[in-house]
Structures are given as C-alpha cells and as structure tokens.
Amino acid sequence: MAERPTTNWGRGVAAEAAELAAGTLAPDCACMVDLYPDELLPATDAVLDAFEAELPTLAGGDDKQVFAVVERVVLALNAVNEATTFETDEREQLCLCIDEAFTGQGVGVAALTARHGLGRHELTDQWRDW
Predict the structure, then answer these.
(1) Report field, pTM of the whole predicted structure over 0.90
(2) N or C end of the chain, less CB within 10 A?
(3) CA distance 130 to 53
C-alpha cells in the first residue's frame, strides 16, 4: 500500500517543531500546527485503518460493494473534517490515497467510475463534503 498522507503530514509537523526548537524557524513562520492540529492525524488514521481493513473483502467484489466502501470512508472523513478542516492539498492526497488503495486491491478505479458515468477523480464526490 502507498504511504498514507498522514505519515507525510506528521513528518512535516515534526520537522517544523525541530526547526522551531533549534531556532532556525521563527514562530510567526510556523504553520504546520495550524494545518494539522493534534486531533487531525489520529482521527484520519483511524478512518484509514477501518477503510484498509475492508479492502481484503473486495476481492471479486461488485461495483455496489466497492461504492459502499467508498461511501463509508468518505462519510467518516467528513466527520473528521467537521472537527478539523482538510485543506485543498490534503483533500487531493486523501482522494489519491483512496484511489491507490483500491487499485492496490485490484479494483480498476477508472473502469469502475466509467461504468457509472464518472471521471476517475469523481469516485468520492457523491458523498464528500471536504
């Protein structure tokens, strides 16, 4: 499975904290804590854990089953977004993570979405508030 966006976000938070501690970054230039508040990473990881746990059940699954999993992960991420806001780049990374996870499980995302009159990048749009 591809690296989760939260792993990269956490590295950015840690790097910025190290720069602040070393005095190589002025506090007024720090932004990572605002972009990624303490509750965002674990809440997002919990959603992705549940999503990844469902993926093995999709072997040979039909479109309805795949879309049900998409709906569950997106609605759960909507709840995280209500508490803390995903910015544009983070939204794109989450959508890519979902796409890559399905692809890694053998789901042809482009074919799936095309069968339903959607573009590949519209997989999550029906349920996504973030």
Answers:
(1) yes
(2) N
(3) 23
